[in-house]
Amino acid sequence: MAEYENIRTGRHCVFLMHAHLVFVTKYRHHVFTDAHLTRMEEIMRNVCADFESELTEFDGGSNHVHLLVNFPPKVAVSKLVNSLKGVSSRRMRQEFPDLVQHYYRANKLWSGSYFAGSVGGAPLAIVRRYIENQNRPL
């Protein structure tokens, strides 16, 4: 039962909640290099910490990222997503001016949509393995 080792407690609850999030770039542009993804993971880890959440797994490709987030019941997934996308877009533009070529139309890094799936039916190890095996750009 290794999946239940990290059960968390709040003042009035005991919980183990995970969400699989996927964000794609605006117009599915191929934007990210390995350096971009490494920094993006750090930024998103910090945002999650601000929400008392944990970024359990992170990976992606040149035009998308996958996140596995452990979050408390008081956190609305939509608010977490908005913060993750907003902060990462702003910080990446500040730290990587070369990304400006991908902002020529909308001045946004991310598409307005996202995928959020609750994780519970599949063992977390399988979801982790899936995220770990996402191809990073060369």
Automatic annotation (TrEMBL):
One of its GO terms (biological process) is DNA transposition. Residues 14-134 form the Transposase IS200-like domain. InterPro entries: Transposase_17 (IPR002686), Transposase_17_sf (IPR036515). The gene is tnpA. It comes from the Bacteria. Pfam families: Y1_Tnp. This is IS200/IS605 family transposase. GO terms for molecular function: DNA binding; transposase activity. NCBIfam families: transpos_IS200.
